[in-house]
Amino acid sequence: MNRPTRACALTLLLSLAAVPAGAGPGGGLTWRAWDPGLREARASRRPVLVDVYTEWCGWCRRMDRDVYSRPEVKGYLDRAFVTVKLDAEAGDRAEYEGRTFTSRSLATRFRVSGYPTTIFLRPDGDHLVSVPGYIEPERFLVLLHYIADGAYDRGVSFPDYVKQVAGSTPPAR
Q1: Residue 39: phi, psi to the nearest 5?
Q2: pLDDT by residue (tens digit) across 14-28?
Q3: What does the pLDDT average to over 37-63?
């Protein structure tokens, strides 16, 4: 990760002010397993949102119930992303970067240390950024636009993107 990207990632993480964590499947979205999700992302050229969760995590269940189930969030995710669920404590096999992982070791590979954590990947599977913790629905929708619109890739900081969105038409809901 180059210096501007690291700085942008740090700014994103700090500016989201996510509630400290801790989902089972939910939200009415089409959640894919890791390997089929990454194949679909390559084919559709859409970025990947990975919801890293554990079964015991209360904040993960809240993310499912209060964020992923929101029609505007669900609709945008369905149009702009491939959505993948990753149980950080499971032993399911997953391929990444030419290696075989378990779901557990894949979460470790991405340095996930709290739940929920949202990982964003480019359509080719390259890691963009990991965002730990619960995020309120309105803020989460802005984050989705920030990633899907390519602002993160262009080096726009999340606070600057939020200012741009506030000064223009709000994201489609």
Answers
A1: -65, -45
A2: 344 333 333 334 447
A3: 97
Smallest CA-to-CA distance from 76 within 152, 149, 126 is with 149
The count of domains in the chain is 1
The structure's pTM equals 0.82
Q: pLDDT tens across 120-149, in order?
A: 999 999 999 999 999 999 999 999 999 999
**Which class for 44: exposed (0-12), middle (13-18), buried (19 or more C-beta within 10 A)?**
exposed
d(CA 124, CA 172): 26
Domain range for 96 is 3-163
Question: Residue with structure tokens 């990975």?
Answer: 50
N residues, the chain: 173
Query: What CATH number has the domain bearing residue 96?
Result: 3.40.30.10
